[in-house]
Design goal:
6-stranded antiparallel sheet, Sig_transdc_resp-reg_C-effctor, alpha+beta, globular, 9 strands, 3-stranded antiparallel sheet, Arc Repressor Mutant, subunit A, 149 residues, DNA-binding
């Protein structure tokens, strides 16, 4: 069974042919980089540790931290995500790991239709709390209480 096509930000990722494309431009990546990008897409918005990446992408092969760092760097370069200070695609979370920062949409390769949106919904901006009643929440318990025996 072929892996579905996935849109990662502006890039369309076709794992079955190790290819990413954007604006009519196609790039063929090493299979390991495609596997890494797909794993990030499967866990969009989550911080992934080096150990998680090694366990799931490299399948616990003997891999050094340098190999993971180098692979992330190559993937960023392929995605044109070279600004370390404000990455668009893959952010480094100090002392924790890496995080995919863009929306992800999965497609059925055969039909070309959207099958699942896996990105977490955007987090609303924080609104300062006030003591004004007009800003308070009106919460009601609509659950049916359990029957007592």
């Amino acid at each position: 069974m072929q892996q579905p096509v996935v849109r990662v930000g502006e890039w369309l990722v076709t794992p079955s042919i190790n290819q990413i494309s954007r604006n009519g431009r196609q790039l063929t990546l090493e299979p390991r980089l495609i596997d890494l990008l797909v794993f990030f897409a499967q866990h969009s918005g989550e911080v992934l540790s080096r150990d998680e990446l090694i366990d799931n992408v490299w399948k616990r092969s003997i891999v050094t931290n340098h190999v993971v760092t180098q692979s992330i760097s190559e993937l960023r370069k392929s995605l044109k995500d070279n600004d370390e200070d404000s990455p668009v695609y893959i952010a480094t979370v100090p002392k924790r790991g890496y995080k995919l920062m863009v929306p992800v949409i999965w497609y059925s390769e055969e039909e070309g239709e959207e099958i699942m949106l896996s990105s977490p919904p955007p987090i609303p901006e924080a609104v300062p709390a006030t003591d004004s009643p007009s800003h308070s929440l009106n919460i009601q318990n609509t659950a049916t209480p359990p029957e007592q025996s």
